Structure formats: C-alpha cells, structure tokens
Amino acid sequence: MTSLYIDIRDDQWPLVYDEKYNVSFCGFEKLHVFDAKKWRNIIQYLLEANFITQECLVKPLEAKENDLLVVHTKKYLKSLKWSGKVAMIAEVPVVACLPNILVQRAYLKPMRLQTGGSVLAGKLALERGWAINVGGGFHHCSAGRGGGFCAYADITLLIKNLVVHRNVQNAMIVDLDAHQGNGYQRDFLGVPEVYIMDMYNRHIYPKDEEAKRAIRRKIELGNKVEDLEYMLKLRKNLKAALKEFKPDILVYNAGTDVLDSDPLGHMRISEVGIIKRDEFVFEICKEKEIPVVMLTSGGYLRKTARIIADSIMNLKNKGLIGCEPKNKVTDKPERF
What we know:
The protein has 11 helices and 7 strands. The protein has helices at residues 38-48, 65-68, 74-79, 83-90, 100-128, 154-165, 182-187, 209-212, 227-244, 271-287, 304-317; strands at 15-16, 130-133, 171-175, 194-201, 217-221, 249-253, 292-295. Strands 1-2-7-6-3-4-5 form a 7-stranded parallel sheet, with helices on both faces. The relative contact order is 0.15.
C-alpha cells in the first residue's frame, strides 16, 4: 500500500490542497510567465466566497523517492540534484545559478507535494465519485524526462497507483490543456488499458510526434480557436470516446491556458467557455457514473485562479460535486 493514500473525514471535501504547493525562488519566479501562487489564489477566492472553510480541505503527503520510483528512473531523479537540469525543466534560467538545496526546497518540494496530491485525489475520486487536486497535471513529464514546468509524472503515478492498489483496470485521460500531454503519453505508449483523448493547439510546444502515437482520440486545434468550435469538438469527441471505451476512472487535465490572451496557449476561449467546458466533463461523468479526478495543470495569466475558483463553485451549483459522506445510504447506490 502506498503511504500517499490517506483516509479523510466524512465532512471533508475531496478537494486536495496544501499551502506548501506554492513556489518561491526568492522572487525569481516572477521571471516566468507562470503565476507561482496560482494555487493559493484559487483557495483564497473559494474562502472569500464562503464556499469552503480550511477544515473542508484535504492535505496530501509529499511524494518521496520510493513513491516516485513507481514511475521514474533512478537516473532521472538523480539528475534533479543538478540545478541546471531543474532550470531547464522550470524554464527559469537563473535557477541554474542557485544552490540545489534551495531549488529542492523552493521548487521541487512543492512539486512533490502536488504530485502526492494527485495520487491521493485518484483514490478519493473512487470513494466519492469526484476529486479535485488544486494543483498537479504535470503532463509534460514522463518516467525519464521532465520539461515545460513539469518535474514529476503525477498523471502516470496517479493511474499506476490505482491499478496496483485499487484494482482499476481501465483509465481514461481527457487532456484539455492547450498543450499536447506528451509526458504520460510516452509512459502509456502501447498500453490499451489507458485511453488518451487530447485536445490541444497543434502549433505550440511540444510537437512530440512519437508521443502522439499513444493518443486514441486526437483533436488538433489551430491558433485563435473560439468557444463555439471548441465546445462542439469537445462534446462530439468526448461522447464518442466514452462509446468506444468504458473507464473505471477519468483523469481530467483541466488546463486554463486555453484562455483568450494566454501568452503560451494562443487560443481564444472565454472565461465562461472554460467554466462550461469543466461543467460538461463533470456532467457526462456523472451521467455515466464514472469517477472523475480533476487536475488544474497549465494556465499562465494571473486571472486564471479566479476562473478556476468560479468553475469549482459552478460545479457545486449545478449539483455535479458535493460533500457526500462515502458511506451514506441511499435508495439507489450512486457514485455522486
């Protein structure tokens, strides 16, 4: 049994977060377009709206070396002890000049904690029907290679732990981040039990042709795609994917870098479009009684934290998520 799986109280939401998720390189993180306090800001908006209390939240455990070795090679983990390597992954060149002990504490430890959060969220989704890790979604990292701000392969770890510890046989990844999710794709090449649907901008990073061979339903979009085209393609393809494949769990990589004016996504999805997108994914999972785990993944504008918070509140308002005791007796057994 993995030490990352913990039990939660009935009054807690399967909403996974720790204050230590947030990255700080002595201010150097401001040199990156990524909002390194995005995760804190999401929770702050939810608290200010009286949507949650601190007691609702689930604090994960940090993924330690033995947890990471379930997927990662020893050689890769050892390479993270070189600051130059981490600087390339984090895309902040000045990090190469920092002592590795600082890099471990300021960047890699928060990433390991978020990775532990993704693994835990997988377990909680099976128990409650849904879970959200307010972090994670490091879809550019594979067993032996990091990149694109992604140092650990949390999506691969989430699924592999469910297979080993929860007898999950089939999993679906629905990746709606603006970028191709080449990390887990490399890890699951030739694994028919993992169905990958990826909808991304074909003109931007990483353009990983080898990894694309793992995608079962590939929706390649152009620059400047807007809400109507986006939602029509999402609805058509996700419905078709779920006719082709019946997963025991759906891992939803909910990147917000599809947002209009995001500097890296180059797409034009509105704030309302993102909220409606998330709603549709949760709605179809509830309809088909498929547990869903959401990871927040990419999103590079300061305003994305509020959009994610608004989306989570909308999911509750629409009756798609809620704090239901896992042992609650109902007339009809339901996952939700």
